[in-house]
Every structure is written in C-alpha cells, then in structure tokens.
Amino acid sequence: MRTVGVEEELLLVDPRSGEPQAMSAAVLAHATEDDPGQEVFEKELFGQMLEFATRPHAEMEVLGAEIMHCRKEAARHAGEIGCAVAALATSPLPVSPTITVNERYQWLAERYGITAREQMVCGCHVHVSVHSDEEAVAVVDRLRPWLPVLCALSANSPFCQGRDTGYAAYRSRLWNRWPSAGPTELFESTEGYHRRVADMLATGVILDEAMAYFDARPSARYPTVEIRVADVCLHAETAVLVAALGRALVETAARDWRAGEPPLDHSVSLLRLASWQAAHAGLDEYLLDPATMRPRPAADVVRSLLDHIGDALAENGDAARVEHTVARLLGRGNGACEQRLLLERTGSLRDVVTECVRRTQGE
Questions:
Q1: CA dihedral 72, 73, 74, 80 (to 10 degrees)
Q2: Which of 112, 34, 119, 44 shows the shortest CA–CA distance to 77?
Q3: Which of 5, 29, 170, 212 meets the CB 3.0–4.6 Å disulfide criterion with 157?
Q4: Cα(first)–Cα(last) distance of the chain, in Å?
Q5: Are 4 and 56 in contact (CB under 8 A)?
C-alpha cells in the first residue's frame, strides 16, 4: 500500500482579535526549546505562518491522528507565547505580511515584488509514495484533470484582507500569480519532465527547481508525487479526505499507465479554466467534468471522481471513510461555506477567525 504524508500551513493569529501575528520565529523557538530535535515545525515565507509535516503513513486513521496531534502541538506552542493557530488558507482580516528573515525569502520578495508580498496563503500538500521517477511522471500526467476537484473539496479561502473575494478558494488565485505555478502540459517521460524544468531554469525567471510550482510534481526530496492544489482545510478530517483521494488518484493513474492507457490530452488553457471554476465555485455550482471539460453539477463531478478511483479506495480500505466525509462536505459545505455561514451568523470577521481557531483543533 502506498504511504501518504501531509504538509499543512497554519495562520498565526491573536486569540482575541483574530488578527494575524508575525510570531513564527517565537513559536519555533518555543517548540525547539521543548524538543531540541524536533523536525515537525518549520518557518514559512511570512512570519504570520507556521508549517508542519507529518510522517508518511499507510493507514488514514493514523495519518489523521498525527495531523490532529500536530495541530494541537502547534496550538500549544503558540498559546504559550500568546497567540493561536487557525487553519485558514487566507487571512479574513487585513494584514501587512512580514517576510521571514531568510536569504531565499528576501530574494523572492525583491525579485517578484507585490506578487511575493501577496502570498500569505496556507495550503495543504499531499505526498504519495511512488516506485520510480518514471512512474512519478506518468502519474503527474494522468492526475491533471482531476486536481480541480480536490481544490473544490478543500476550498477554505473566501475572505482575504477584510473582503469577501467572491471565490471559495481564493488562495489558488493568489498562488497562481507565481510565473511557474498552475497546471502543466503532458511531460510524457522523465526526460521530458527534467528537460522542461531545465528550460524553465535557463530563462532566469525562477530561482531553482523548487520553484517549479506545478499543481502536481515529482518531489525533488522524496520518492513521492506531491499534490499541491488544496487549501489548508478547516477540519482535519477534510485534510485526511484529500490525502485518501490523492493516494487513490496516484494508484489509479499508475495502474492506467502500466496498462498502456494514455493520459487525457487536455490543453493547459482548458485545465486553467477548470482550476478557475473550482476556485470560484467550490462545491456550490458546477465544475468542469475531467473527461469532457464541460460543466456539470459539482456533486456529480465529485461522484465521477469516486467512481474513477473506486477500486483503489476499496483496496486501500478508504472507501467508507471517503464516502462518509464527502457526504458531510456536500451536506454542510466546505470550509469556505462554513466561513460564510459564520459571518452571516456573527456579522464579524473577527468572530469568524476566533471560531475557526476552535475548529482547527477539532473542538
């Protein structure tokens, strides 16, 4: 069975006002003092963000428990220095982001200007194990049309800088301002993939291979495919859903490749439209069908995803968990829907943030 690891980026906020706080250095110092060998928590581009990474797991129940443990530990370390953590993909309240003191981050800020300064966004990255570089590239080619569905399910960024953006997953719209971000053409082989990245580096526009910010890519550090389209999810169970779906998509894609099934040859232009629609609508309207690139009700497209990966879900033991979580999401809405309902109920974005702090820890 393929293993899965999850990276989550969390927002650091004032527990009373909900305003983002540039406290990541202090939180990391506290975590390291508590455990000098800790490698779970890391700094991010902005001081108002904190990242953690789980270990790889084969069982979704174990993965979910570690995500919750990491969230609670992040909350504990933050709480002991006077701030809190929120699984919010953008800040609902206005903020002036503080670039972390780091040579790479300073270079990004100088090189990309306002594009970099607007990247205070929190994502959820899923790493799924693969057996070879060749398999990784074959999988990435076959994941492309399904990734917008993961974006819609995880959508958790309707508000940004004090405004309703009109999107469910506005994080992805900000992220795609990087010149190297978004969907990709078919690579067709490992040579094709590495040639594409080398050509991008040769332009001088991006700094290094780590800046190949594709929606899905072979990891440069681990024997995994990294799926990068999801917002950080308000609830840990949604993050586990994205991980389970990601693993089943990778397994299904690998089987199709081994069986000689070619990937769907959709253009990047259409894939960008599918991504935009998913970010805009979430689960509330229609999505573009991954097979036809024509609009269908979101719930029907989600069902098509589950049908497409049904065998892998069953064999991984994830089918019941996935069906249950998907039903909950389609019933109550994703994180974006929850945030908008909270604003409707309270009339205050501050109250939205403070309630999301509570929900981040499963309370």
A1: 110
A2: 34
A3: 170
A4: 32
A5: yes
Sign of the dihedral defined by the CA atoms of residues 243, 244, 245, 247, in that order: positive
List the CATH number of the domain containing 98: 3.30.590.20
d(CA 132, CA 275): 28
Tell me which H or E stretch contains 297.
strand 295-297
Tens place of pLDDT per residue across the chain (363 aa): 999 999 999 999 999 999 999 999 999 999 999 888 888 999 999 999 999 999 999 999 999 999 999 999 999 999 999 999 999 999 999 999 999 989 999 999 999 999 999 999 999 999 999 999 999 999 999 999 999 999 999 999 999 999 999 999 999 999 999 999 999 999 999 999 999 999 999 999 999 999 999 999 999 899 999 999 999 999 999 999 999 999 999 999 999 999 999 999 999 999 999 999 999 999 999 999 999 999 999 999 999 999 999 999 999 999 999 999 999 999 999 999 999 999 999 999 999 999 999 999 997
Amino acid sitting at position 220 = A
Residue with tokens 């972390």: 100
32: burial class by Cβ within 10 Å (0-12, 13-18, 19+)?
middle
DSSP, residue by residue, 172-241: HHHHTTSTT-B------SHHHHHHHHHHHHHTTSSSSGGG--BSEEE-SSSSEEEEEEEEPPSSHHHHHH
Tally of domains within the chain: 1
The residues, any chain, with a CB within 8 Å of residue 296's CB and separated by 6 or more, are: 286, 287, 288, 289, 304
Residue 19 Cα to chain centre, angstroms? 22
Domain ranges, residue 133:
4-360
Q: Read off the amino acid at residue 64.
A: G
